[in-house]
Design goal:
alpha/beta; Rossmann fold; about 200 residues; five-stranded parallel β-sheet
Length: about 200
């Protein structure tokens, strides 16, 4: 498969970078082709301008500011997000990427009358995410209702292939994780991504 890895972390020495590198190595061993969008590394601007907002619903016009990102989405057959969960959700940089890049007509059809949102990127058959969280799993799931996971796993799924598979891998209590906890999680990521075909 052709994997697009959307990586979001401001610090090049972070554990997130180790997760990204582990993912890339596991996918390469599985024979997958990969591309990386390093949002911080490329200096992506997550802020939608007034001009972009005014042209948001106009096909073609809304693609111009993010044409390279849309080309990457059209190229891929699988999406993998690697990012830290902050305040229970997506970092502002990643949320801004969704806001600016996933525009109508190019990535989804606008609902019309009783017709729901339409699928456009049907070549995408897999959506995965690898994240770290400060909260324990029970607080994040039972109290907070998994906002970041819901955005990616449920929010994007209606826009891609109807039988697209999803995968969520998370290291909870990241702030207190030992070296051994981190090693185990890296191994878990490597194993899970290595099984993908």
């Amino acid at each position: 498969m052709r994997f697009l890895i959307v990586y979001c972390h401001p610090c090049p020495e972070s554990f997130g970078a180790a997760l990204r590198d582990t993912a890339l190595a596991a996918l390469a061993r599985g024979g997958h082709e990969t591309r990386v969008l390093d949002l911080y590394g490329m200096g992506f601007d997550p802020v939608m301008s007034a001009e972009e907002r005014r042209g948001y619903h106009t096909a073609g016009v809304n693609e111009q500011p993010v044409a390279d990102h849309l080309a990457a989405l059209r190229w891929c057959e699988a999406l993998l997000f690697v990012y830290p969960t902050w305040w229970y959700g997506l970092p502002a940089m990643l949320k801004g990427w969704l806001d600016r890049v996933w525009v109508p007509h190019a990535t989804f059809g606008m609902p019309q009358g009783r017709k729901p949102i339409g699928r456009v990127l049907t070549q995408i058959r897999f959506i995965g995410a690898v994240s770290t969280l400060g909260a324990p799993w029970w607080w994040w799931r039972l109290v907070m209702s998994e906002p970041g996971r819901r955005t990616l796993m449920r929010g994007l799924k209606p826009l891609v292939h109807p039988r697209a598979k999803t995968l969520w891998l998370a290291l909870h209590r990241m702030d207190n994780a030992s070296d051994e906890d981190r090693r185990r999680f890296l191994a878990k990521v490597e194993t899970a991504l290595g099984r993908l075909r």
